[in-house]
Amino acid sequence: MTLRRSGLTSALIAAALLAIGLAGPAQAQWTPQSYFSPNGGGADATAEVIDNAQDTLDVAMYSMSTSGPIWNSLKAAIQRGVRVRVVMHKGHTSNKHKTAALEGIGAHVFAVTKTMHQKFALADAGKWWRRKLVNGSANWSTGAETRYSENTVVYGRHYHLFYAFQQEFNRLLADAKPLTPQAAANQEPVRLNKPSSRVRRYERAVFTSANFDTGTEVVADEIIALMQKAEESIVIDVAHFNSQRITDALIAVKQAKPSLQIEVMVDLGEYADGKSKVKQLEGAGIEVRYKTYSLSFLHPRSQLQHHKTMIVDRRDMITGSYNWSETAELRNYENVIVVQGHVARNKPMIEAFLAEHDRLWNQNRDRYAPFMAAMRSDPSDADYRRYVPIHFDTDYYRGPMSLTRSELRDLRSAAWAAGAFERQPNGKRNVEFSYLDRENRDVYRGNPPGTFIDLGNLNGATTVLSGLNNN
After folding, report:
1. 217 occurs within a structural domain
2. I need a labelling partner for 343 at 20 to 30 A (CA). Which of 60, 157, 384, 419 fits?
3. Domain boundary residue among 324, 339, 361?
4. Looking at the whole model, is its pTM more than 0.85?
5. pLDDT, tens digit, for every residue of 135-169?
């Protein structure tokens, strides 16, 4: 199903511009810029923010690659005198290579004891006219840019948002351990004046750090409150759907409003995850599709559906780093931004996220029938395919498909019959390889001849991924 789309001070200056509708070039300063992976420009946009930073850059990041445009921009920023502070979670700071690399380029690194799952950066806090906030689902990693379905959003003069995220970074610093004496000397918080109430708030940040001392569930509260307001539609793109409370709330909304159109797009890993609640959603008649990029989930070969977004009535949105799980709510540092879509400056972002959802929801669905036919072909058939792709990231077969549970079950059943889930004599699972030879039930990493299915007569969009290792 495809949803129907309906159609004096710095604060005072901002309020005045908002009041006149942000006409002309001024509006660009308030319109969030959205980028979608794979290869959608998010890393380059983040690098541009870093390149334009003049004084400070505060970063909270779960994972970071030590190569690529963002890393190169970090090095260049430090070399020209920008103070860069990075808060990571302790699991990643134990990776001495990455920690040493950050310290080696002159960054001040801090570790928090809880899982630091946020992915945001704040540039030039001391200059209101230069402030930029980068937030989203994407880590600063090669996988996030080239393989996964991610979002990165750059916010300009969003004063309330910047203030809220700077307060959150201050809290992270207060809870963190500096890893070097130089970092300890740069652990002071950034004090900003609270934005004037004259500046209207059309975006609002919520952080799970508010739960740690109170036992509350502030992000789940926001998600449930927004979905309960839905009158026409709810679209959800989320990597993990493990929260029983949110599950119960969504099912209750569907039962109270049977005509409500709900689409839930999740990652392949949710299909067989015992903690996932998506089977409950499906049992309640809610449509769920899985981004299917392998016969069986294997993280090193994954092309994750990594968004964490909900849009209600094609107007209001919640998006950020927060997976829909109790772990995210109670054990991680996470954030969401609640976006009001009725205001002109936010409409382009909402439309962009809706388009991303539609792309994922319908991705390569026209390939499913020929893929299954090739899986079930016999040696006597003219279009017989001896080799079966285990992961969909090579020249033999490239591109995820958006599948329902029943479609994915049939696909896996055919793969099981072909031997895809067996083990090799040395104990290695077949899913650790690239191809299965159905005739001798052996597995390979090299490219077999030809292609698995003929894409020439298909009308669906082809997903092109670059930078993947075919082995």
Report:
1. yes
2. 60
3. 361
4. yes
5. 999 999 999 999 999 999 999 989 999 999 999 99
Same domain, 287 and 378: no
Do 365 and 463 meet the contact criterion of CB atoms below 8 Å apart?
no
3-state secondary structure the chain: CCCCCCCCCHHHHHHHHHHCCCCCCHHHHHCCEEEEECCCCHHHHHHHHHHHCCCEEEEEECCECCCCHHHHHHHHHHHCCCEEEEEEEHHHHCCHHHHHHHHHCCCEEEEECCEECCEEEEECCCCCCCCEEEEECCCECHHHHHCCEEEEEEECCCHHHHHHHHHHHHHHHHHCEECCHHHHCCCCCCCCCCCCCCCCCCEEEEEHHHHCCCCCCHHHHHHHHHHHCCCCEEEEEECCECCHHHHHHHHHHHHHCCCCEEEEEEEHHHCCCCCCCHHHHHHCCCEEEEEECECCCCHHHCCCECCEEEEECCCEEEEECCCECHHHHHCEECEEEEECCCCHHHHHHHHHHHHHHHHHHCCCHHHHHHHHHHHHCCCCCCCCCCEEECECECCCCECCEEECHHHHHHHHHHHHHHCCCCECCCCCEHHHCCEEECCCCEEECCCCCCCCCCCCCCCCCCCCCCCCCCC
Q: Give 288-344 pLDDT, tens digit per residue.
A: 999 999 999 999 999 999 999 999 999 999 999 999 999 999 999 999 999 999 999
